[in-house]
Design brief:
Number of helices: 13
CATH class: Alpha Beta
Number of strands: 13
Number of domains: 1
Largest sheet: 7 strands, mixed
Order of helices and strands: HHEEEHEHHEHHHEEEEEHEHHHEHE
Bound molecules: zinc ion
Distance between the termini: 4 Å
Radius of gyration: 19 Å
Helix content: 25-40%
Shape: globular
């Protein structure tokens, strides 16, 4: 993290954007956008792994601001509200990416697009994700057809079904590229989901890798080689017993978690092998147990990785 002062400045900047947008002042928005355009910022929107809603950390979502444009990676429940808190006007939504389609990563996909449309979205939104994303997009709009059709007629809104363009990717390699960023994917190890990916964003000033959900993955090490920042999911195994006491209807949850997530020690191994400059822990499992301290999250990591290490928190700017 670049420090509290930086975060405050970013929130002030983007807060000004929100006010400018609310006042319909596109001039101020353009000015602030050009100021932001110089760099790539990462904002952790939600850092709790898993679909349960509760106090503490919010469900998974990450924001990259690249050239003043928001790129949202994963849409856990609460992503719309977290974007607003980060100072991003929802009508500026432009790009969405999914690492995989577990519900803690896509439960608020449709509602985010809807909320952006309700706030004044006019431009196209490109969404990238594994197969079934097209079906999910159409199915969501279908479920909201009654309301959407009424508002188009009654309020003179554009048809959101024409604004959102889902793109499915099926394998390793290039996901998308524009003048500001190149996005590549590699399949990671998150059984039983085969279509689970890590994503790498190479911009003009930074390379950022998001692990997605995965167990220890040599493929992720390859993708993250030399990256400036690696955002990695993390599992604290001793915290599992109390987590499982809180979830009473999932008989094989322990087996799923252990098979499909990365222990603190293995996160350290991955970051060291990839030679990343900064490692940011997020998607904490368990993410709602205040008895697990920052030291407990980092102790295992530190056995293997000696670089810059950050314990992520919601709305932290990196
Ligand atoms: Zn997850
Ligand atoms: Zn998952």
């Amino acid at each position: 993290m670049t420090g509290t002062a930086d975060r405050r400045r970013f929130l002030l900047n983007t807060g000004a954007l929100a006010l400018a947008a609310a006042a319909g002042s596109t001039g101020a928005w353009a000015q602030e956008k050009s100021k932001d355009a110089a760099g790539t910022k990462i904002v952790l929107l939600g850092t709790k792994g898993g679909p349960r809603v509760g106090g503490g950390r919010k469900n998974p979502a990450t924001l990259l601001m690249i050239g003043g444009v928001p790129y949202v990676i994963d849409c856990g429940y609460g992503v719309s509200e977290q974007l607003v808190k980060a100072g991003v006007p929802l009508q500026n939504l432009r790009y969405i990416f999914f690492t995989h389609l577990h519900s803690d990563h896509n439960l608020e996909y449709g509602p985010l697009v809807y909320n952006a449309w309700a706030t004044g979205l006019k431009q196209r939104v490109d969404a990238y994700g594994p197969k079934t994303l097209k079906h999910q997009t159409l199915a969501y709009f279908d479920s909201m057809k009654f309301d959407i059709d009424i508002r188009i007629d009654d309020e003179g809104k554009p048809d959101p079904r024409k604004l959102v363009v889902p793109h499915e990717f099926f394998d390793n390699g290039l996901v998308m590229e524009n003048a500001d960023v190149k996005v590549t994917a590699t399949r990671v190890r998150h059984p039983p989901i085969a279509d689970a990916y890590a994503l790498r964003f190479d911009t003009k000033d930074r390379s950022v890798v998001i692990s997605g959900d995965t167990n220890y993955s040599p493929e992720l090490i390859e993708l993250a080689k030399g990256a400036d920042v690696l955002l990695h999911e993390v599992l604290y195994v001793p915290g599992l017993d109390s987590l499982l006491k809180r979830v009473t209807n999932a008989a094989t949850l322990r087996e799923h978690i252990v098979a499909s997530h990365t222990t603190t020690e293995d996160v350290g191994r991955v970051a060291a092998a990839a030679g990343v400059k900064k490692l940011v822990l997020h998607h904490f499992v368990p993410g709602d147990d205040p008895s697990i301290t920052d030291e407990m999250w980092t102790e295992g990591v530190r056995k293997h990785y000696s670089g810059d290490l950050v314990v992520g928190r919601d709305l932290m700017v990196i």
